[in-house]
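ok, trying the design again with the full structure, not the truncated one.
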């Protein structure tokens, strides 16, 4: 089957691309990537390890007298200071307007030497963003662009109100999920992809607090596509509306094994252990700083747990890559002519601050709040032909994205979260989720009733403006 599919790809891609290149081509594209993996000497704990490399990847696309830069990096977030420093440098290096630049994070939770805030540092990231965009601009060549989408059943809602009437961050198969995999391809005149842009909504948390540096499944998906085309293609991954989405097929033992739990074989159907009588609240900074060396007697079990998780991560990334290839072979109809337009909208929503910061309750309780500083939100839009990539600078809940897709005056809509800086909000929950006593909702700085409508309205307004 695989050989037959490859023959079909070889037969169909030239035909589709040749039809597109028969037009007078106006579109050009280039892509590049820069390694930002920490050095082994940067690891802060002796038993920590580097599973795979981290990259900043960039696509520059030009049409007529304007261009756009799309950047994705294997990091937990786009630090606001890095975004602010990088954008004017990217604009100067590429000639693309700042409004035409999208910088996103894959949201891997294992992309630094200290949880989400170690090496690579801000300057390393800024330099890599600028270099990847500069190198991509230098490689501009005639290209076609096309869009496709399919569904992939890998994610699951993680806001669960369980049978004990408790709110927990656990799989909720009855909860809402957007299982759309969106793909944008940029095909060169030699019929080989210059770049592939993929978007899916699922938290890359498989190696969180494990001591393992990894780009998680987004990195696996990118590498699988790049390897498939013999290193001639750069594949970018961005997050969809994953604020309430986890992997459905997630191993649960790695972090506990790493932190000294007894090595054990999973018991199916056994009653769970009783919760501690006075469980401390969860503080991410404390959890990251408290990482210790794995004891010698636990190392064998720890490495087995890493292998199990690694197999799952490879499976997730490979499936996303294979579904992407299917779309490229059979469903995407590219064009060599596409107008480029970019715009941004900045606005605020009322904020709140928790008053239990010293020992914050994790979930299943309403913490005390006080009025806080306004939350700064940014919606970005990059239009390439009839493809609309909408960026939001935070972790967005599914129903916000579904609402935008429902009311958008277009069908080829991609929602790229964690894009163009970081909002001072925490999670951006949907209006229907305001009463969830989940980790994400109670930890958000947003007061209910503002963000959803403002994000949707801003995105639709930009879409309409792009057609003027």
């Amino acid at each position: 089957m695989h050989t037959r599919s490859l023959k079909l790809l070889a037969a169909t891609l030239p035909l589709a691309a040749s039809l597109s290149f028969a037009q007078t081509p106006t579109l050009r594209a280039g892509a590049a990537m820069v390694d930002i993996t920490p050095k082994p000497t940067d690891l802060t704990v002796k038993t920590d390890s580097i599973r795979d490399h981290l990259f900043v990847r960039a696509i520059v696309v030009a049409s007529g007298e304007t261009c756009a830069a799309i950047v994705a990096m294997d990091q937990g977030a786009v630090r606001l200071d890095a975004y602010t420093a990088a954008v004017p440098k990217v604009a100067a290096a590429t000639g693309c307007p700042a409004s035409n630049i999208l910088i996103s994070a894959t949201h891997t939770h294992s992309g630094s030497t200290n949880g989400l805030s170690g090496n690579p540092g801000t300057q390393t990231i800024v330099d890599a963003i600028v270099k990847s965009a500069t190198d991509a601009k230098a490689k501009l060549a005639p290209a076609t662009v096309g869009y496709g989408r399919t569904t992939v059943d890998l994610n699951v809602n993680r806001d669960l109100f369980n049978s004990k009437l408790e709110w927990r961050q656990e799989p909720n198969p009855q909860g809402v999920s957007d299982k759309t995999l969106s793909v944008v391809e940029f095909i060169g005149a030699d019929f080989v992809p210059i770049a592939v842009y993929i978007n899916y909504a699922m938290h890359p948390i498989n190696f969180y607090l494990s001591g393992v540096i990894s780009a998680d499944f987004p990195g696996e998906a990118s590498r699988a596509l790049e390897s498939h085309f013999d290193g001639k293609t750069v594949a970018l991954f961005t997050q969809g509306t994953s604020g309430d989405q986890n992997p459905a097929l997630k191993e649960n033992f790695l972090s506990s094994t790493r932190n000294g739990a007894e090595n054990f074989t999973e018991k199916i159907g056994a009653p769970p252990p009783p919760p501690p009588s006075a469980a401390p609240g969860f503080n991410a900074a404390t959890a990251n700083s408290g990482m210790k060396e794995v004891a010698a007697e636990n190392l064998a079990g720890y490495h087995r747990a890493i292998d199990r998780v690694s197999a799952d991560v490879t499976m997730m990334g490979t499936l996303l890559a294979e579904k992407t290839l299917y779309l490229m072979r059979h469903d995407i109809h590219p064009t060599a002519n596409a107008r480029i337009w970019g715009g941004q909208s900045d606005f605020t929503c009322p904020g709140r601050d928790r008053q239990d910061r010293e020992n914050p309750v994790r979930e299943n309780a309403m913490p005390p709040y006080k009025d806080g500083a306004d939350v700064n939100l940014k919606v970005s839009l990059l239009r390439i032909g009839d493809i609309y990539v909408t960026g939001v600078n935070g972790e967005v809940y599914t129903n916000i994205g579904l609402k935008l897709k429902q009311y958008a005056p277009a069908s080829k809509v991609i929602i790229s979260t964690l894009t163009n800086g970081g909002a001072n909000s925490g999670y951006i929950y949907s209006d229907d989720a305001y009463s969830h006593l989940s980790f994400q909702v109670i930890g958000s700085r947003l007061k209910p009733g503002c963000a959803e409508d403002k994000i949707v309205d801003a995105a639709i307004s930009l879409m309409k403006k792009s057609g003027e």
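Keeping the full-length input from now on. Residues 299-330 form the longest helix (32 residues).
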